């Protein structure tokens, strides 16, 4: 299928998925625009097919596929769109792939524009996935820009899932829900970075069940709340076997920003080793003074510190 999308989508694709207008995507892809497919290509080892019972796609990666990338960006380009999609990933035994699943919402009108992507991952024995997800909101309309991703994961024996998620501007409302059930020796690593401003609101929810022996989870959220924005972080890690679990929320407050952090640990096995951390505060004054002594203004110093914090 040839790609067929508008200019707004093209601009957002460059940001959320590093799309190149000349070379396109280097790998299998499915581009979603305003609830419709705007382009699709499978590869020899990665097959993308439409669901028959609901909006969305099935992505199947053959066993022992290594070094390939599949792109599934989704864009909403105007107001009065409520996009709901169900995408299921079936990752074969021993595969090692990258999934790029960014989302952009553009709103120049008065009605709400929303994308709700429900992604399910099924990793077979020894499979490895790097899942990259970048969210942005654009446009000058008064209608809300909303992105509500849901990610549910089932990790088989010795499989590994790493999630790298970023939301740094323009999304008025978001609830980000991630759940995972881990088998023997399976690992999940999450690195979340969020910045809110104005009256934006962001909610993060993690729920991980460490059911398999020697399974592990490392969940880290870094965030900056500026303006009058509000963020909430909820994390539950359940240790039901010999396992290791770590959950952390590290947040910077600026202006009148607010952050709530509620990490929770539930241990049901004597050999479950679980840790949680939460740190919320403003930028340290000595950091700003040090950068100002090098010639930066206070505003420039704060931007440099935040930039480094969210890397």
Automatic annotation (TrEMBL):
Domain (SUF system FeS cluster assembly SufBD core) ranges: 91-309
Pfam short name (any one): SUFBD_core
GO BP, sorted A to Z: iron-sulfur cluster assembly
Superkingdom to which the source organism belongs: Bacteria
Sequence similarity: Belongs to the iron-sulfur cluster assembly SufBD family.
Protein name (record): SufB/sufD domain protein
Organism expressing this protein natively: [Eubacterium] siraeum DSM 15702
């Amino acid at each position: 299928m040839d790609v067929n999308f508008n200019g707004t989508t093209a601009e957002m694709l460059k940001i959320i998925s590093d799309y190149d207008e000349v070379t396109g995507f280097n790998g299998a892809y499915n581009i979603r625009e305003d609830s419709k497919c705007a382009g699709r290509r499978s590869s020899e080892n990665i097959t993308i097919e439409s669901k028959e019972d609901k909006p969305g796609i099935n992505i199947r990666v053959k066993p022992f596929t290594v070094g390939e990338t599949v792109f599934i960006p989704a864009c909403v380009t105007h107001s009065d769109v409520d996009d709901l999609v169900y995408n299921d990933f079936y990752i074969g035994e021993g595969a090692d792939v990258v999934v790029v699943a960014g989302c952009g919402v553009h709103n120049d009108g008065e009605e709400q524009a929303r994308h709700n992507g429900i992604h399910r991952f099924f990793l077979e024995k020894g499979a490895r996935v790097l899942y990259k997800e970048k969210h942005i909101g654009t446009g000058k309309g008064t209608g809300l820009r909303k992105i509500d991703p849901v990610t549910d994961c089932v990790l088989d024996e010795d499989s590994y899932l790493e999630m790298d998620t970023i939301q740094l501007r323009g999304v008025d409302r978001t609830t980000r829900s991630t759940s995972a059930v881990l088998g023997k020796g399976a690992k999940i690593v999450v690195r979340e970075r969020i910045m809110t401003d104005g009256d934006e609101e962001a909610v993060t929810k993690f729920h991980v069940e460490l059911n398999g022996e020697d399974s592990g989870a490392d969940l880290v959220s870094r965030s900056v709340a500026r303006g009058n924005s509000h963020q909430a972080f909820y994390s539950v890690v359940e240790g039901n076997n010999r396992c290791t679990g770590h959950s952390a929320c590290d947040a910077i407050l600026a202006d009148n920003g607010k952050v709530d952090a509620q990490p929770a640990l539930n241990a049901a096995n004597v050999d479950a080793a679980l840790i949680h951390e939460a740190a919320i505060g403003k930028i340290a004054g000595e950091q700003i003074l040090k950068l100002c002594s090098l010639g930066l203004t206070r505003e420039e110093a704060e931007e440099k510190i935040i930039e480094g914090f969210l890397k």
